[in-house]
Structure prediction request, 205 residues.
Amino acid sequence: MSALVLYVLAVAVLFGVRSWMQRRSTGDTGFRGISGTPADVEWWGGVLFVVAVLLGFAGPLLAVTGTVTADPPPAVQVIGLVVALGGFLATLAAQTGMGASWRIGVDRAERTELVTTGVFAHVRNPIFTAMVVAQLGVVLVVPTWISIAALVALVVAVQVQVRAVEEPYLRAVHGAAYSAYAARAGRFVPGVGRLPASAGETTRA
Prediction:
């Protein structure tokens, strides 16, 4: 039950409350939704993300109702709750750190400020990293195939969104500035996934 309550509260805060706060401070919710069509890889990334969220909710729910069995040792459950809570709080902190540039989805016609301070000075996608950590915590609390499927779907969705959508968009919009940033900050963890400086040397769209 604790994992289900935590998950519902986290989703409500990270998406609902955070969008409300964004609208209140900037006049824009930051929500761009799923872009493209089924013929576009970005569409599949967005759909997989939604699937991951739904499966992430279904895992604890089905365990609570007894539909699936999940009975890890108490110590593992406690560790999982701590990891999940830490991941959700880190997600919220990273969202807040983006300020007015925070978005759910990408609008290719839009130009937002490139955030390179705080945790973003070391990791380019700390929000996604924290979300994966949070779901890993949920898996420890509710170790069922549904929760594991949610984790796998989330990892794949994040990889697609970052590599096929956000990085090309940021290269096109910010050019050399993003190239220099990507050369010094890791993709998901510090020092890992940095891009060669030449990789970002593209002209602006």
The helical segments are 2-26, 41-64, 74-97, 126-141, 145-174, 176-184.
